């Protein structure tokens, strides 16, 4: 398992947290998603054999948020 910490902008409420946790959390290979709204950070633990950092970033961007 690998863990990445991403700086994400555009998150402003509980719906944003839920959207990212659900959207990323439902991906194959993702073990855990932790959104820190007040810090603008998303920490993801994942199996690098099933998903990569680029795929995770793309999913967050597709949900309407920007990776810093």
TrEMBL record:
CDD domains documented for this protein: HMA
InterPro entries per the UniProt record, alphabetical: Cu-bd (IPR000428), Heavy-metal-associated_CS (IPR017969), HMA_Cu_ion-bd (IPR006122), HMA_dom (IPR006121), HMA_dom_sf (IPR036163)
Residues annotated as signal peptide: none
Residue ranges of every copy of the HMA domain listed in the record: 2-68
Pfam families, sorted: HMA
GO function terms (MF aspect): copper ion binding
Keyword annotations from UniProtKB, A to Z: Copper, Metal-binding
Keyword Metal-binding: yes
Matches recorded under SUPFAM superfamilies: HMA, heavy metal-associated domain
BP-aspect Gene Ontology terms: copper ion transport
Name under which the protein is recorded: Copper chaperone CopZ
Biological source species: Alkalicoccobacillus plakortidis
